[in-house]
């Protein structure tokens, strides 16, 4: 948990990476996105890298809108976020969460030492304090 100060508003963004599902077969030669690998993708610079990219929407601040957004990130074998989807969210906060994840570079997932495409869910908690 980390406090971030912007303008006169304070908000807390809680982040953690969640692997989604389990898969036992090897996807090293596949075009599918892995959800369970020996090494899962990690944001370069840690979770702080995502937090730096989060901009609390002005409308959400004014209207005291808070909540959790679950962003599903599709990450290629180079660690680039190629697509994001909202799995669960708050309409006023979804775009800010998606944008933050899209701007983040990741280490790629690895299966048997080879970089592969993967998908993870990243929960981002928006809370005004």
| Mean of all residue-level pLDDT scores | 84
Distance between the amino and carboxyl termini = 13 Å
Cα radius of gyration in angstroms: 15 Å
What percent of residues are in strands? 35-45%
Shape: elongated
Strand tally, please? Answer: 10
Order of helices and strands: EEEEHHEEHEEEE
Structure description:
- With 129 residues, the chain is of the alpha+beta class.
- It is 19% helix and 40% strand.
- The protein has three helices and ten strands; from the N terminus they run ββββααββαββββ.
- It has helices at residues 47-53, 58-62, 91-102; strands at residues 2-6, 9-15, 18-19, 42-43, 67-75, 81-88, 106-107, 109-111, 114-116, 118-128.
- Strands 1, 2, 3, 5, 6 and 10 form a six-stranded antiparallel sheet that branches. A two-stranded antiparallel sheet has the order 4-7.
- Residues 1-10 and 21-29 have low confidence and may be disordered.
Short description:
The protein is of the alpha+beta class and 129 residues long. Helices cover 19% and strands 40% of the residues. The strands form three sheets. Strands 1, 2, 3, 5, 6 and 10 form a six-stranded antiparallel β-sheet that branches. A two-stranded antiparallel ribbon has the order 4-7.
């Amino acid at each position: 948990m980390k406090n971030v100060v912007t303008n006169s508003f304070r908000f807390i963004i809680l982040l953690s990476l969640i692997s989604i599902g389990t898969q036992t077969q090897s996807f090293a030669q596949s075009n599918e996105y892995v959800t369970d690998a020996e090494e899962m993708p990690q944001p370069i610079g840690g979770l702080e890298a995502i937090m730096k990219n989060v901009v609390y929407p002005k409308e959400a601040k004014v209207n005291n809108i808070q909540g959790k957004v679950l962003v599903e990130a599709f990450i290629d074998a180079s660690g680039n976020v190629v697509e994001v989807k909202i799995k669960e969210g708050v309409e006023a906060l979804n775009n800010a969460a998606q944008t933050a994840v899209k701007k983040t570079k990741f280490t790629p997932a690895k299966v048997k030492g080879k970089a592969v495409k993967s998908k993870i869910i990243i929960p981002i908690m928006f809370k005004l304090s």
